[in-house]
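Case study.
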Amino acid sequence: MGRFLNVALGVLTAVGGFVDIGDLVTNAQVGARFGMSLAWATVLGVIGICLFAEMSGRIAAVSGRATFDLVRERLGPTMGLLNLLGSLGVSLLTYVAEIGGVALSVQLICGVSYLLLFPIFGVFVWLVLWRAKFSLIENVFGILGLALMVFVVSAFQLGPDWSHLGHEAITFAKPVQENWSTWCYYAVALFGAAMTPFEVFFFSSGGVEDGWSDKDLPVMRSNVALGFPLGGMLSLSIAACAATVLMPLGVSVDSLDQVGIPVAAALGRVGLAIALLGFVAATFGAACETGLSVGYAVGQYFGWQWGKYVRAAVAARFHIVIALSTLVALGVLATTIDPVTVTEMSVVFSAVALPLTYFPILVVANDPDYMAEHVNGRLMNVLSSLFLVLVVVAAVAAIPLMIWTHLGA
Amino acid sequence: MRNRFDSPYDAVLHLLDRQVLDSDGLMVCKVDDLELVRVGSSWWISALLSGTAALLPRLGGRAGERAMRFWKRMAPEQTDRDVPYRVEITEVADLTSAVNLSRPRQQALVRERRADSRQLRNLLECRVRTEAGEDLGHVLDVRIDHDGHRLVGLVVGRGRPDSLLGYDRHPQQGPAALRLIVRMLHRHSGYATWDQISELDWDRGQLTLTGRLQPLQAAS
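After joint prediction, the assembly is written out as follows.
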């Protein structure tokens, strides 16, 4: 029974933890503008994150080494440092977006401007990262994030023409008024939103925090194989809700409150309240995960003691990095930059930074020195090689597409 | 995981840039460089080097030099600013996915300038030629005999030390497409024993080999 609970808890956490501000905004935007014609990009992103997380989780369980340890060990100090700077930039951008997202979500609840709220919640995130237990961070917000399941309920309540939505998804039916270039740009954004690098830093470092060994492989695999696809389903239902309610009205989503409109239309006030709770939990949880990921990446590159499994005094430099990056994130938000814009940028740069960590993980997952009998199997290698190509294509295409389409305007 | 120090190993692939853990499993540092000393006619690894003074020069070329100058300029009054921290190789209990020390991490790292010692970095920066003057590239890795950590051979080839990614040592390491690409890029890389070195000029970064390169093989 204990084992079953363990699996269930992990799966629930993965579902709730999968959706962050990037998924909320991007999926609603895409649903409202393109219907379900880009559903394939989310599906690909979910398969990709499953492969990536399974490999790095397996390495963490078998060898006790987390993602950035291996980046430095395999690519050397120079490439490792460039890699660190790139990944750190993206993680910080995401951190800004998540803290802004928490403030925006609370603004929707209480009406106080997010500009007054973000310093409070930024400090609150830092306090949680400093004082709270890892299991609390990992589980509580993930499970509260399940409130977003209200989008799945709404999708059914709205009773859309399923065959029409399915047809859009399968035939890549781009709306006639949109360009192919914007369509491709949003495909990359969805891919980046589903496959954010910090999720994998967090997942593999969390494995080390929880002291995984090769006995935990089945539990880890079930978390990945059930949790992330269910999280992806949540993303798709957000898009489906937007496609059903917002698209016919010609509303384009450029703020967080519009993401919740379909839920209000379907389930009224109670539904909206649950959705808002989900927004706060999902963004707060993701803010904690990105904040930790910044500390993990720096600590693992320089070899410092990192992690929540030791007292804060033992991992002093790790906690200094987290405190400083929180300060930087608050500084960025203080410029009154729109957190939704930061979110849009962060998902695209996630796609750019992805190969930097995906590649070394793929190499080490095949290294018998590290993995012994747990090296990648043949099917895993075929799939992960295909995804290496895909990840590189998305990374190369992302910035040109961003410039060409003026951020998908 | 098996202990790499039970059999011959490769310094760059197996030791360099790995995490160092203490006897309680707490993290200490990374292996940023290795200290080499000459005893008799052979070179031996005497210590793991760590810290900014060991890491910055390894960034390589002009960027590395500049970073190091900047680092010294931050505190010109400190005499030992450019001296890396040392951990004696005898304090290493075993080498698995991490370097495990046999002592706790308190006061494990000591800054000490050793006369007549060299760093692995110096060897990796060496240009390798044959006696006929043919350019073979750089030292990509150094094979170490585990008994006393003596340097016994070199992996020589074009590109950077980390560009082999370990694909030369395990013939079946997947994915097949990556293995093919790495192997094709390194088709001129090979192995030379330490005895094949006819001249090693540390200061000019020149290394001359006699005889031919042998095909690459796993250390053990």
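Observations recorded in class. The mean pLDDT of chain A is 92. Residues 104 and 110 of chain A are 10 Å apart (CA to CA). We will return to this complex in the next lecture.
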